[in-house]
Amino acid sequence: MSIPDTDPRIxxxxxxxxxxxxxxxxxxxxxxxxxxxxxxxxVNEMGEIPIDHLLIDYPGEDIVLLDxxxxxxxxxxxxSEALERLYRTAARDNRTIPSVLVETTGLASPAPIxxxxxxxxxxxxxxxxxxLAAAVDAEFGEATLKAHQEAVHQVVFADELVIxxxxxxxxxxxxxxxxxxxxxxxxxxxxxxxKDPERPAxxxxxxxxxxxxxERWARLLTGPQAAHHHAHGVETCAFEVxxxxxxxxxxxxxGRIVDELAPALLRCKGVINIAGVEKPVVxxxxxxxxxxxxxxxxxxxxxxxxxxVFILDGANRxxxxxxxxxxxxAIMESRAA
Length: 337
What we know:
Layout (H helix, E strand, L loop, with lengths): L9 E8 L5 H8 L9 E5 L7 H5 L6 E4 L8 H18 L7 E4 L6 H10 L1 H6 E11 L3 H7 L1 H9 L2 E5 L6 H14 L5 E3 L7 H4 L10 H8 L12 E8 L5 H15 L3 E8 L8 E6 L2 E2 L3 E2 L10 E8 L3 H10 L5 E4 L2
Parallel strand pairs: 1-4, 1-5, 2-3, 2-4, 5-6, 6-7
Antiparallel strand pairs: 8-13, 8-14, 9-10, 9-13, 10-11, 10-12
Helix pairs in contact: 4-10, 6-7, 11-12
């Protein structure tokens, strides 16, 4: 459904999904789609060493990083301020923002974000929540929905659902996950995606929809899914490494991570300096799976330090530090949530 001409407010489309579900993989090609030409982008990250915004590769001028915490917690006010800042900057420059895309952290519950658009006066006057999509990992989605209430809330609130990495899952597992998602949310369409959708514009938000129905907001915001409690024991550990890696050393280090921490490894992401490789190398891992490395076009700064972020379920920070020590890797730690 296209934007109604009678509503002059800026449409905001929010992309949620648990840690490692492939949100950035969905977002990157969407930013090249014609319906999002000139869109502003807000990226929310956990941890004191932000990485996700580097992976988007967005040429537009309006990109905002919110890296002090989760959008549904203290950063709810930061979301309002970021939207206001985008609006005022565009007005000052005598230009318009056609739409805003928001990528949340994987631990974000949608309820407080939806409440921002439903109740905050300045936000309501200038912006409308047009869609809230949730990405669900085909490989780990069933286990994640059982273990983490945030993932359930993301599915329940969504009006668009995408099962990512569908090419990595057996058909029976894919069907079981689809059935569970449909049980949690009987109304939202469910799409499937491999690692690189051939037609991403057709996969999600082919057209910018009209605002979500107010009655659906009201029902969701008064139900049990509106309660917001982060999972206990989830810890984010962020590190910088000054010395370059070589490929064998990196492979050995990641192998140790998988062998010792796979069940607790909710997410690993990193921008790595590889000796003899001019461009930064990006790594991604979830539990026991690390995906093929990618490269960025340029380093974010002159330091060329490797940056690694681990999101762990349970008290595993000490084990992680022991793995660095055993591999002989000198680190500078920035302890986050």
